[in-house]
Design goal:
Blueprint: E1 11-14, E2 24-26, H1 48-71, H2 83-103, H3 111-140, H4 146-182, H5 203-209, H6 225-238, H7 241-264, H8 280-291, E3 295-303, H9 312-326, E4 331-337, H10 339-349, H11 357-362, H12 364-370, E5 378-381, E6 384-395, H13 400-415, E7 422-424, H14 428-459, H15 463-486, H16 493-518, H17 525-552, H18 560-589, E8 609-610
Antiparallel strand pairs: 1-2, 1-8, 3-6, 3-7, 4-6, 5-6
Keywords: Glycoprotein, Membrane, Transmembrane, Transmembrane helix
Membrane topology: Multi-pass membrane protein
Domain SSD: 40-176
Length: 611
């Protein structure tokens, strides 16, 4: 950030302890005299152990949560197998935040003070994102799909354990690592090393056996090159007036494309997608579409109760109900099968009396002799028919909308009958989701978004910025839903799971940046945006990349479920990071009253010195 100064004045800009920044000393000619990123390869200050145990912390959270739920007898379904990849990405994201905050503390402070500063900076941000993620998944338990319920229970509980392990187990590792740094010990050999370079021993010796150097002006570790990039290049570029205009136009294009995509999203799940790519089931459905596409499922019309079939009035009522169903636009009445019609035809031909109970039941054996397969359609013992069924052949059921309309139409006709009827086919378990998938998706999104708003209002010290976080949630959800259509992903129970994920993840990046923005000490809105990007831009990038890497292996899976999980997670992370790093910082600068007082810095535990 450029700072104007009178000619001939020597300016030393010491970044606050929250900024892990390199010291910058500018003379009259503007030349940079100090600073650097030497600490990034420092054999003492490197964070190899912290990174390794951060990943281990996520693994322990997965084992603990899954073990507890399995011990409690919670059903485990295949969709819950996606959770470990997700938890790994989230846990590593929180680890990056904590490590970044640790690096911003003063190296010469005691471990106790450095841990206090780290938790003061990171705990609120991590708590906000964890609460929103956990709430998003636990709200998803209210859905009517058992597969989604199982996924949400396992993932939400794993988030709770991940949070606990990060603040306890990983915090302890960070403290132990801090004690090693305090005594200036090598990260691998744990032997005390020199802080002074020895040119006579060569560069290899200095790189491997000399460490512990830090920025003596700020007292913090040297600035990471990525942090410098966000402070000196990306932040100022984003808040430039012309860039803001471009960002607004880019967002309008994004929003327009997303809304258009939302109108093109298809509902329904292809049964092929429930099998592995190499399964014979896929070839079966391909042949079925090729040779029997005009025929739909052969639906059973079941009479589940005992009724007096020998009563002619009851038979007429039952026949009227069957004909009513046969007249459906999705039924070919010429392909129906009715054991009762066959029985009545045989009885009339043979002059059999079927108008009383004993003769009706007694003469059923004649039907079995003429049509030996009819007994499959009648369940009777002694003089009682406890249940029976008829078959209807459906036609022209080619789309998910046809399947939904067929289900609603047949169930409606069966419900209007005087005779108790049930229409059923094994495929109805998939058709059922079309009746509630859109309703459940909207319900979960609305409830979860409201919960996110409440948490943001409680934990982010500014109502307007809390609304911006909620706006980011809605915006990312619209974007992911819209771009699902462009990536050939239908709205079904599988993608609905990922939309639940979207609710939780869409808040993460925006919450980090918004909280950093409102807690910044900078007086102007542009400076606050740059400061927020400087402090948390790199951890956000790390978290986004680590999450995508965590689920990248799923893109090569031979199962549609896992590939869909990757596609939507990729969209969630891409759009979430774009909102956190581009859209939200720019939009926040449009409101000069976003802080408690735009003319005075917000109260903070940090200090800033400008000499």
């Amino acid at each position: 950030m450029a700072v104007a100064q009178p000619p001939g004045r020597r300016l030393t800009c010491n970044h606050s302890s929250d900024a892990q920044g390199a010291s910058v000393i500018i003379n009259e000619g503007g030349a940079k005299l100090g600073g650097g990123d030497e600490g990034q390869l420092d054999c003492v200050l490197t964070k190899v152990w912290a990174a390794s145990f951060g990943v281990l912390s996520s693994g322990l959270a997965i084992l603990s949560s899954f073990g507890l739920l399995l011990f409690c007898g919670v059903p485990f379904v295949i969709t819950a197998a996606n959770a470990p990849f997700l938890i790994l990405g989230v846990g590593v994201d929180d680890m990056f935040i904590m490590v970044s905050c640790w690096q911003k503390t003063k190296v010469k402070d005691g471990v106790k003070d450095r841990m206090a500063d780290t938790y003061a900076e990171a705990a609120v941000s991590v708590t906000i994102t964890t609460l929103t993620d956990v709430l998003a998944f636990y709200i998803g338990i209210a859905t009517s799909f058992p597969s989604i319920q199982s996924f949400c229970i396992y993932t939400g509980t794993a988030f709770v354990f991940c949070y606990i392990y990060n603040l306890t187990f990983f915090g302890a590792v960070l403290a132990l690592n801090g004690r090693r740094e305090e005594s200036n010990r090598h990260w691998l050999t744990f032997m005390t090393v020199s802080t002074e370079t020895d040119d006579s021993r060569g560069s290899a010796y200095n790189m491997c056996c000399v460490g512990g150097s830090y920025d003596e002006t700020t007292g913090a570790e040297y600035e990471h090159p990525m942090n410098g990039f966000f402070r000196k290049y990306f932040g100022p570029f984003v808040v430039h007036p012309l860039t803001k205009v471009f960002v607004v136009l880019l967002y309008l294009g994004y929003l327009g494309s997303s809304i258009y995509g939302c109108t093109r999203v298809k509902e329904g799940i292809d049964l092929r997608n429930l099998a592995s790519d190499h399964s014979y089931v896929i070839q079966y459905y391909n042949w079925e579409d090729e040779y029997f596409k005009e025929y739909g499922p052969r639906v059973m019309v079941i009479v589940p109760e005992s009724i007096p079939y020998w009563n002619s009035t009851v038979r007429v009522d039952l026949e009227n109900c069957v004909q009513l169903i046969e007249n459906s636009t999705y039924v070919d009445k010429y392909l129906s099968e009715s054991w009762l019609r066959t029985y009545i035809t045989i009885a009339n031909r043979m002059s059999l009396n079927i108008d009383d109970r004993s003769s009706f039941i007694g003469n059923l054996s004649v039907l079995f002799q003429v049509d030996p397969y009819s007994w499959w359609d009648v369940n009777f013992t002694d003089l009682e028919i406890s249940a029976s069924r008829f078959f209807m052949q459906t036609v022209n059921v080619t789309t998910a909308i046809d399947e939904r309309d067929l289900l609603e139409q047949l169930r409606g006709l069966a419900a209007d009958c005087n005779i108790p009827l049930i229409v059923y086919h094994p495929a109805f378990i998939y058709f059922d989701q079309y009746l509630v998938i859109a309703q459940n998706s909207i319900q979960n999104v609305v409830i979860a978004t409201g919960a996110m708003l409440l948490i943001s209002l409680l934990l982010i010290p500014n109502p307007l910025c809390s609304l911006w976080v909620t706006f980011a949630i809605a915006s990312v959800i619209v974007g992911v839903t819209g771009f699902m259509a462009f990536w050939d992903v239908n709205l079904d129970s599988i993608s609905m799971i990922n939309l639940v994920i979207c609710i939780g993840f869409s808040v993460d990046f925006s919450a980090h940046i918004s909280y950093a923005f409102v807690s910044s000490e900078k007086p102007s809105m542009n400076d606050r945006a740059v400061d927020a990007l400087y402090r948390l831009g790199y951890p956000v990038v790390q978290g986004a990349v680590s999450t995508i890497v965590g689920v990248l292996v799923l893109s090569m899976a031979a199962t549609y479920i896992f590939r869909t999980f990757f596609k939507i997670m990729f969209l969630v992370i891409l759009f979430g990071a774009a909102h956190g790093l581009i859209f939200i910082p720019v939009f926040l600068t449009f409101f000069g009253f976003c802080g408690s007082n735009p003319k005075s810095p917000l109260p903070s535990h940090r200090t800033s010195v400008l000499d």
